Amino acid sequence: MRFRRILVPMDLSPSGAGAIRAGAEVAHRLRAALTLLWVVSEERLEAQGCEGGPARPADLICEELKREVLTRFVRVVRPELRQEMRVEPLVRIGVPSEEILETAERTGADVIVLSMPGRASLDRMLRRRVFERVIRQATCPVLAVPRPTARSSRRAAS
Question: pTM for the full model?
Answer without folding.
Answer: 0.83
